[in-house]
Specification:
D-Maltodextrin-Binding Protein, domain 2; alpha+beta; 2 domains
């Protein structure tokens, strides 16, 4: 779906991309798509959704790589660049729980299906009485498990449901004050080789400056924190039309027993440094054992 969105925007941006020159979509099934019985944190982190795609880009098998920004590691493959961020969709998490309008409405002791440590930790912070059960798979798989009664509720990104035309399954959109989203959530990012002048020129025209500023700040925060794929981190930057940027972030223990927060404001051009500063603030605040080592922080 995201690749089709980018292909349509490419043809709108450059009318010459028609006929034999029209964008072609190459579907690459990643390890993250194939392995469904374990948390990403236990099998290699977010790279499982991107490494095969990045390899194809570096090897000139494809010219552009389309990603959910939240799935991108903070360090890109050498020789590539994040060239375009499309206008950002809804950043919120959606609660899928029939009869519930908020986390407070969940039945006591309810079994909640999710594979995201970020969602798990914030859920348990608010509702320590519920149980969390590992649940991965595509949207249809998760909804089927919910309908079968395997779990009483689950979470999905509102942006993904909107793009799939499935917003009707949402029972509640969670305010970021209640469930801070993953860095990059709701944004589509397009990566290309840094020496491909044609791709860079077209993607530059497609880039949404405010979304790009937000994603840059959030990714800089993740990079500063380091952490590991076992560290739940949430972050949200918001750019306004006056050129200001505000970012807030949260680090938690996976069981929700502790949480640390930081926020700050600056200009769009300050975004990377602002993200680094907020990340450094959180690193100073949280217990030393929380950010347990270098690697890809968990933002799913």
């Amino acid at each position: 779906m995201q690749a089709h969105t980018v292909a349509a925007m490419l043809t709108q941006t450059d009318p010459r991309l028609t006929g034999a020159d029209a964008p072609q979509i190459v579907i690459i099934r990643t390890s993250g798509d194939k392995i469904q019985d374990r948390r990403l944190a236990d099998i290699g982190g977010k790279a499982l959704f991107t490494k095969e795609i990045e390899r194809a880009l570096v090897d000139n098998e494809i010219d552009m790589a389309v990603h959910s920004a939240k799935d991108l590691e903070t360090t890109l493959a050498p020789g590539t660049v994040l060239a375009s961020t499309l206008p950002r969709e809804d950043v919120r998490d959606a609660l899928i729980a029939p009869g519930c309008n908020s986390l407070a409405d969940l039945p006591r002791g309810a079994i909640i299906g999710t594979a995201s440590l970020r969602r798990q930790s914030q859920l348990l912070r608010a509702r320590p009485d519920v149980q969390v059960q590992l649940m991965r798979g595509n949207v249809e798989t998760r909804l089927a498990k919910l309908a079968a009664g395997d779990v009483q509720a689950t979470f999905l990104a509102a942006a993904g449901l909107n793009r799939l035309g499935k917003a009707d399954v949402i029972d509640a959109l969670l305010d970021p004050d209640e469930m801070l989203p993953a860095a990059g959530q709701g944004a589509i990012a397009v990566q290309c080789r840094d020496d491909d002048m044609v791709a860079l020129a077209i993607l530059c025209m497609m880039n949404d400056p405010s979304a790009a500023a937000e994603v840059r700040a959030e990714r800089a925060l993740l990079a500063e924190l380091g952490g590991s794929c076992h560290t739940p981190i949430a972050a949200l930057a918001r750019a306004d039309i006056s050129g200001r940027l505000h970012i807030r972030a949260r680090v938690l223990r996976p069981d929700g027993s502790a949480s640390w927060q930081a926020e700050g404001s600056g200009t769009w051009s300050d975004g990377i440094q602002l993200g680094r500063d907020i990340g450094a603030s959180l690193s100073r605040q949280c217990d030393p054992d929380v950010l347990i080592g270098p690697g890809d922080a968990s933002t799913g």
